[in-house]
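Why does residue order matter? Because the sequence determines the fold. Keep that principle in mind as you read this record.
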Amino acid sequence: MNDPNDHKYRKYHPYQGLYDVPAQNLYSLPTSPEFLFDEEALHQRRSWSESLQNPCRGAWRDGIESGLIHWRDTDDLVNTVLAGLGTGAIYRAAKGPRSAAIAGAIGGIAAAAAVAGKQAVKRYVPI
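Structure:
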């Protein structure tokens, strides 16, 4: 597994460039992530930019919703739906107006479904 001739591994030499130390054979670090199971290696993961984007979407939606609550002077389902619609439209605006309109509609529907589901759980599930 830690064969020094294996091309999946690179040599780690902490003293490289300082002086020649026979520590080259001490460390052999993988160049790609190691997984315990094959299924884990096949799982698709988000990139760092996608992971950064999700909290930003929440912040946009919350900011838009807060602005709508202040502007409309009421806190209801419409604010949440409009915030979801606005967030979807903002994030897809660079792809064009059609994409922004579709993403806005999906965002509004998703927000409405989330609020309706929350209200249904509050009403019908005894806690």
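The two ends are 53 Å apart (CA to CA).
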